[in-house]
């Protein structure tokens, strides 16, 4: 992961995201994540984050802080992306940058659309994920907003909570 610019916080991120897959090989896990789509298109993990911030959907301070990149690393990535014509001189995505982000998002959507396991009861997967999301959200160390722009999980009392699976 270090070679792709992913350090520190990312280790827990990938471990948490991969855990529901059970015991699988690394290629199975990595095929499920955005970084694969970004890396295949020539972006490091840091550059993928810089382009995400350039969309205006997330704030730099949130992403940079949670990922642990220094200002110098961030600015070097911005300069590289500017040199490649992905960002303009003010940190905004160029037409080429917008096209690249769209390609990455479309590839991510395609990868995410293929379930690695076909559950007998798809509603069970949703119920388990909601329980896990709420448990994470209830933890006081969980930030009020997330750097990847994910909405907060459903609050206690969501439909189906009475059927909460016991883990």
Radius of gyration: 18 Å
Helical content class: 40-55%
How many discrete domains?
A: 2
Strand content of the residues, in percent?
Answer: under 5%
Summarize the biggest pleated sheet.
none
Oligomer class: single chain
Q: Segments where pLDDT lies below 50 for 5+ residues?
A: none
- Class by SSE composition: mainly alpha
User: What's the mean pLDDT score?
Assistant: 75
From the spread of the alpha carbons, the general shape counts as globular
- In DSSP terms (H or I, runs of 4 or more residues), the helix count works out at 8
From the N-terminal CA to the C-terminal CA, the straight-line distance is: 30 Å
The total of beta strands comes to 0
**SSE string, helix = H, strand = E?**
HHHHHHHH
Characteristic key phrases:
single chain; 167 residues; mainly alpha; 2 domains; 53% helix; globular
Structural commentary:
The protein has 167 residues and is mostly helical. The chain has helices at residues 9-18, 26-30, 34-40, 45-54, 60-67, 71-83, 95-113, 122-138. It has 2 domains: 2-113, no CATH class; 122-163, no CATH class. The chain is globular, with a radius of gyration of 18 Å.
What's the short story on this structure?
Helix content is 53%, strand content 0%. With 167 residues, the chain is mostly helical.
């Amino acid at each position: 992961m270090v070679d792709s610019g992913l350090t520190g916080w990312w280790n827990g991120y990938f471990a948490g995201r991969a855990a529901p897959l059970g015991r699988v090989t690394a290629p199975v896990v990595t095929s499920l994540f955005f970084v694969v789509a970004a890396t295949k298109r020539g972006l490091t993990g840091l550059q993928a984050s810089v382009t995400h911030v350039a969309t205006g959907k997330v704030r730099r301070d949130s992403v940079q802080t949670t990922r642990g990149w220094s200002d110098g690393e961030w600015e070097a990535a911005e300069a590289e992306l500017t040199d490649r014509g992905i960002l303009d001189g003010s940190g905004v995505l160029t037409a080429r940058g917008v096209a690249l982000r769209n390609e990455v998002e479309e590839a991510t959507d395609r990868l995410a659309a293929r379930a690695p396991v076909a559950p007998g009861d798809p509603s069970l997967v949703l119920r388990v994920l909601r329980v896990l999301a709420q448990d994470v959200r209830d933890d006081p160390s969980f930030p009020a907003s997330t750097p990847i722009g994910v909405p907060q999980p459903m609050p206690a009392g969501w439909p189906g909570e009475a059927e909460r699976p016991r883990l």
